[in-house]
Each structure stands twice: as C-alpha cells, then as structure tokens.
Amino acid sequence: MSYSDPLAFHQSRPTMVLPRPPVADIAHAVRCREPTSSQITWLRRGLGQPGGKLPLFDLVGRRIGGSVVKCCVKAGWAEPWFNNPLKPEWEVCRLTDVGRAVAADDSDPGLVGSESELGSEP
Questions:
Q1: Selection from 81, 77, 83 nearest residue 38 by Cα
Q2: Which among 42, 27, 24 is positioned nearest to 120, based on CA atoms?
Q3: HSE-up of residue 91 (Cα within 13 Å, Cβ side)
Q4: Of all helices (H) and strands (E), which one includes residue 92?
Q5: pLDDT tens string 18-52
Q6: pLDDT in tens, 80-119
C-alpha cells in the first residue's frame, strides 16, 4: 500500500455500513405522529366499551385495517390486550390513558371519519 495513493488507504480500511430501516417503516413512523380521522373513529368506539376494548370490525362488518391498529399501538393510544385463541392473527387491543384523551378530544370536529376508512386495505 502506498500512501501516495489517497484511495489506497480508504480501500484497505473496513467500512461500517449501518442498516437502513425499510422505507415502509419510515413512512409508517411519519404517519403515526397525529391521529387520522379513521384512527380517532376507531379509538372513540372503545370509549364506551368495558375496559376500553377496541373493536375488531367496523360498523359495516369489515375488519379494521392493520395500519390503523399498528399506528395506534405504536403511538401509545392503544395496547395489545390478550391473544385471541380462535384467531391468533387478530390482535385484540384496548385504549390506553393517552388513547382515551385522544379519543375524547373534541377540539377538531373535522376528525370524525367515515367508517369506510377503517376497513382493511386491498
């Protein structure tokens, strides 16, 4: 190795490559900063339920979208409650204290989303 060649030194040193998070994880984190209308609608449905249980299905009978559930859990508005022995892939969640505050906040009347937004993604 010759020090007269400036690239030789850099090429001989091992470089540390840090893994980048998947783009989907970055986009997911950005989306979860403020509740969307569909998230608030879902959280509000848990206010009147025993223990703050959040529904698995919307009012029309469609399953609540996975992104709604994941964002709310990641933001701390909901928490996994127990595993469903009949359908282990269905995550049963309940409201947290922060989630109750978010759901009960009536400062923005435009956040009452339609139930169609809660359905699972195609």
A1: 77
A2: 42
A3: 15
A4: strand 91-95
A5: 555 454 444 554 556 789 999 999 999 999 999 99
A6: 988 878 888 888 999 999 999 999 886 654 444 444 445 5
The tokens for 31 are 């989306």
46 and 52 in contact (C-beta within 8 Å)? yes
Q: Which two tokens stand for residue 58?
A: 């919307």
Contacts of 39 (CB under 8 A, 6+ apart): 68, 71, 72, 77
Contact by Cβ (8 Å): 78, 69: yes
pTM comes to 0.62
**Helix pair 97-104, 37-45: axis angle to 10 deg:** 110
Please provide the size of the chain in residues.
Answer: 122
